[in-house]
Structure to design on (261 residues):
């Protein structure tokens, strides 16, 4: 059972003390993967310390939110049937529950549609598209979204179960800001072992952003007004459409920086 699994992992030194309760609940694919990453990165104490610090910060930031707006989550995908389930699970396992997930399938030729169809949740909407590219697929999601707040999750990424709660809480408390972003871990899985490429943590500076994108779209949340005022993704760009969108949405007002992941 889960308690036995936890004791075994704990005895092997695999479980970080900050999220033991979450591990026991075993309701989040994020902590399953994070546990494996920490095992693979055991020779990197600085990274483990960053994880501990982030988890402590998250607990302090998850205050009760009285106003709970709908969040539209845009997920483009193409032939990711082997990984998309974990991405969807990380949405289903969010502590913040007022969301809709719009999966925009850019003409996958694998069994992505079959994988998605087995998940029974009325908050998930699936769009089977003709081949149009990631920018156009995301725009389909934006046009069909209803949320006051909008977030993005690629089908090969996962969120902490506290991501929406922290980001929504930040934007509802700071009503003068239009968007926010947080840190992220860039990880590669090779032969069943995880390798940490980088831990990205950076305060906002528009001049730096104009030369290199340091905000990952999967960590970015914005108010609907930005989309309605400035439009969505530039479909003429073959690459870096996410960078273009973030530059456009942060030009007039700096985003909030949330120092956690």
């Amino acid at each position: 059972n889960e308690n036995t699994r936890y004791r075994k992992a704990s005895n092997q030194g695999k479980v970080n003390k900050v999220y033991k309760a979450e591990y026991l609940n075993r309701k989040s694919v994020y902590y399953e993967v994070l546990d494996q990453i920490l095992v693979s990165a055991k020779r990197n104490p600085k990274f483990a310390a960053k994880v501990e610090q982030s988890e402590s910060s998250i607990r302090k930031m998850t205050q009760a939110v009285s106003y709970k707006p709908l969040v539209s989550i845009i997920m483009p995908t193409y032939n990711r049937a082997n990984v998309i389930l974990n991405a969807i699970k990380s949405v289903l396992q969010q502590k913040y529950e007022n969301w809709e997930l719009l999966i925009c399938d850019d003409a996958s030729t694998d069994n992505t549609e079959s994988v998605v169809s087995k998940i029974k949740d009325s908050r998930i909407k699936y769009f089977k598209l003709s081949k149009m590219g990631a920018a156009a697929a995301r725009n389909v999601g934006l046009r069909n979204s209803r949320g006051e707040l909008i977030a993005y999750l690629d089908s090969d990424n996962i969120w902490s179960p506290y991501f929406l709660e922290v980001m929504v809480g930040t934007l509802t408390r700071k009503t003068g800001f239009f968007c926010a972003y947080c840190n992220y871990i860039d990880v590669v899985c090779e032969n069943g072992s995880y390798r940490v490429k980088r831990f990205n943590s950076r305060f906002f500076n528009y001049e730096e952003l104009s030369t290199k994108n340091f905000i990952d779209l999967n960590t970015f949340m914005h108010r609907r007004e930005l989309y309605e005022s400035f439009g969505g993704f530039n479909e003429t760009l073959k690459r870096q459409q996410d960078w273009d969108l973030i530059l456009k949405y942060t030009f007039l007002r700096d985003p909030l920086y949330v120092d956690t992941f």
Notes: Residues 45-61 form the longest helix (17 residues). The longest strand covers residues 193-200. Residues 1-15 have pLDDT under 50 and may be disordered. The radius of gyration is 18 Å.
